[in-house]
Structure formats: structure tokens, C-alpha cells
Amino acid sequence: xxxxxxxxxxxxxxxxxxxxxxxxxxxxxxxxxxxxxxxxxxxxxxxxxxxxxxxxxxxxxxxxxxxxxxxxxxxxxxxxxxxxxxxxxxxxxxxxxxxxxxxxxxxxxxxxxxxxxxxxxxxxxxxxxxxxxxxxxxxxxxxxxxxxxxxxxxxxxxxxxxxxxxxxxxxxxxxxxxxxxxxxxxxxxxxxxxxxxxxxxxxxxxxxxxxxxxxxxxxxxxxxxxxxxxxxxxxxxxxxxxxxxxxxxxxxxxxxxxxxxxxxxxxxxxxxxxxxxxxxxxxxxxxxxxxxxxxxxxxxxxxxxxxxxxxxxxxxxxxxxxxxxxxxxxxxxxxxxxxxxxxxxxxxxxxxxxxxxxxxxxxxxxxxxxxxxxxxxxxxxxxxxxxxxxxxxxxxxxxxxxxxxxxxxxxxxxxxxxxxxxxxxxxxxxxxxxxxxxxxxxxxxxxxxxxxxxxxxxxxxxxxxxxxxxxxxxxxxxxxxxxxxxxxxxxxxxxxxxxxxxxxxxxxxxxxxxxxxxxxxxxxxxxxxxxxxxxxxxxxxxxxxxxxxxxxxxxxxxxx
Length: 560
Prior knowledge:
Helix content is 67%, strand content 2%. It has 25 helices and four strands. Strand 1 and strand 2 form a beta hairpin. The longest helix is centred in the C-terminal third of the chain and has 40 residues, at 468-507. The mean pLDDT is 88.
């Protein structure tokens, strides 16, 4: 179902993107005319393409008509996720559950994270997109109990929704239009406009503050995770899912911050406070993401070995009785053979396969076989009881997740922790980078993580946009050189200030300074103990506890 909902979101985003192109009809006409002039024949696909553009002139309304056959299924899917989604976006619940902490319960410190709540955190951003675009294109489902509350929670998260790269949509404006015109015999959306106004005010007035609070929580938790896992990398095995959850939430918050930068809302402007959408410490969150990602890649072998042993041990034992229950029912012979082979396949997953590089093929075979059996088990002709089906589905879903933590760790990090989309906000990224160099204590230490982020920008290139390879590559190199030059300027400045301090302190030991102090002592004795106003302090004077403030600037420069 996750891929199905992603397909729906992608389909809607594509049509919104096409509709946002200015003068698209004129551009297509010019292209068709140029093609005919060059090829001496009409462009064969022009009638079909022009008809498509005319039909989707107002894409949202057209898609609403197209999605009527699947509207009920989309609504049921969204409502089934309502409880988990509301828990994932509430930072107070996350704090109360110690969702991202591995030291809050020492007895469970070495136990694996396998609950549905943590796995749902990985899909938090996707659930948000499903909710926003799902109800926008299937508004008839808003009449269901709980649908309005779910939509309000999603709309309160912010007023910007990504479409493609740096193309965004001010979603409240589209929902205001929807609530004006959409109605069914059972419901009139215009009667619920107060809910929409409340959500808009929360998104614009409190959204910046709420997300800043969430970022502070994430910075604290990621810092704690880094410290513990650096000292005890063996915990990366059982806590790999928790680390991915933390990285996913942090990445989503970073992208949210950059998307909302310097964009004025079209609705609820009276509640907008620009200062709430500034964050001088966002560089720290980027730094923790980069460091935790590197830590997971460095000890990838630890994670692989842990889950290989988990798959052929506890997972195989848990699956075996469930398979026997399913086999006791009437199944197709081919499906029965596949299901019967699952426990043996899990038991045959070994560390030797990891060393020889065959583990990917073995685990892919397990996943494909399970998907083939799943199609039959979920079919209308299946005679497996609902309770037995739910048990094996839940267990095998977790087993499949464990197999991916063996051979798809890099893919997980690309999906949940990559900051490659910051390329489309590189101008603001430069401002944040420059601010971190001049920031408060400790912030300059984060500047090199920005340069590490540049290594991910090449992942924005796709086979559909080959011309971007040279553009992104050359511009990224130029930007890195510029940023390194800026770092060197700051380092030279700091070294100059530190050097001047040490030169001044060293000068106090010079003979001429000693002679000057002897003259001052003589003057004091002549003045009957009264200190001269311009008396030079003796060497080491700044080290006294009462004079430590004189070295405060030097200590800050050394820490930077």
C-alpha cells in the first residue's frame, strides 16, 4: 500500500508541475510548428498531448474525477494511519515515550527496536504527503469520522508542500478553493471552513515555533545517540532502526526549514512572524545527521552480522509455527511449496554469504518468494483465516525489514538521511554556512559537515536529465572551492587574533618591560604607596581567578 500511495502522490505532483509551466500551450504550439518545418510532417503526438493539456488545465478537479473509483480505498488507508501519524508529529509524545533515546531504559538498551511506532516514524513525511494530497484529490472521504481531525493535524504542520525539487505549493490556498466548491449529498465542505481557518492560523502562527521545538528535541537526541554509539558501536545492531528514525526526522526538519525560508504565506498573513522561521543553530542538526550517517556506514558490518544472526535465529523460530498454521489450511500447491521453504531459507542466511557477497541474492530471493505467496494469501480465493493471516503478515513484514537492514543499508540512508535536496536551496545554504562560521561557541566546528553534504548533490542527477550532470558537477566544485576559501579566511583571522594574544603575553617578559616595571615600583615608593594610574600589570596577572575574564576571547577563539 505504501508504494500505491506514493504513486498517487507522484501522479498529483506531476500534473501540478505541468500546470505550473507558464504559456505551456504556446510553447507546445511553437514546438509542433518547428517540428513540421524541420521534418516536413506534423508532429505525430501533438494532438494527443494538446488534448491532455486542455483536459488538465485545472489538474486538481480533473484528478478528483479520475480518482472517484479509488476514493474509498484511499480514504480507508489514510484513516488507518491517523493514530500513528498524530503520535509521530507530537514532540511531547515523542519525549514521553523516549522514542529516540537508548539510555532512558538501561534494561532494554541491548534489545532490538521492533515496534510499529518506530517503523511508522520512518514514514512520517510520506504519511504527511499522503494525507495532504490524498484528501485534496479524494475530498468525498472527508465525511468519514476522524477525517477532518486528521486533515487539520496535517494542515497545521506548515503551509508549504513540496511538488518537485524547489517547486512548492501553498496548500492552504488550494484547500480554501476546495472547500468553496466541493459538496456531496451528505456533506457540504463550506460548513467546515472554520476548521480550515484554525489550521491555517496554527500553521502560520505557531508552525515555526513548533518545528523549532522539534529541532531542539532532535539535536539533543542525536547528540546523545552520537556519544553513546561512538563509545559502544556494537549497539548499532539492535538500534539500527532507531538511528534511521532519528535521521529521518532530522532530515525532514532540515528540509522543512529550508522550504519555508523567505516565503510569505498567502493565507493567514496576520499571524506570520518571520523570526519564528529563522534558526541560527540549524547547522548543528546538519552536523549530527552527517556524523551519524558516517557512523552507521563505518560500522555497517556490525549491523549486517547482527541481523544475519537475528534472521537465522529468532526470526526463523518465530516464523516456523506461523507457517505450520497456514499450511494446515487449503492452499495452492505452488503457494504451499513457497511458504514451506521460508523457515529453511531464513535458517540458511549465514555470515559466510555476507563475506562472499552472495547475501544480496539470497535475501532478494526470500523477499520475492514471500511477495509471490502474499499475492495468493490476500486474494479473494484464499481460505486462510483472518487471525492466522494477520499473525504471519505482521511477523514476515518485520522479517523483510530485517533482511533489508543486511543488504540495503546504503539504500535506507539514501532514502531517510540524504540531504541531497539542499542543492536546490544552495543560496540559503551558503547563508547558513557563513553564519555557522561566525556563530556562537561550537558552531564553527560544524562547517566541515556542510562540505560533506556536497558529496550527495550528485545524487540529484537522473537518467532523464543527463544535461544536469555537467551543470551540477561543475557548480558543486566551484561552490566547494568558494566555501573552502571562506573557511581558510576565517582560520587565518582566528590564528591572527590568537597569535596577537600570545605575542602580547610574551612581550611582558622582555627586558624593557622589566625595566619599565622597576621604574613604576620606584615611583610608587616615592608616592608613598599610591599606585600610578598607568601602571603595567605584572606577567601572569591575567591567570588570577579575579582576572580570568581577560582571557575569555582567547578561550573562545581556541574552541572555534
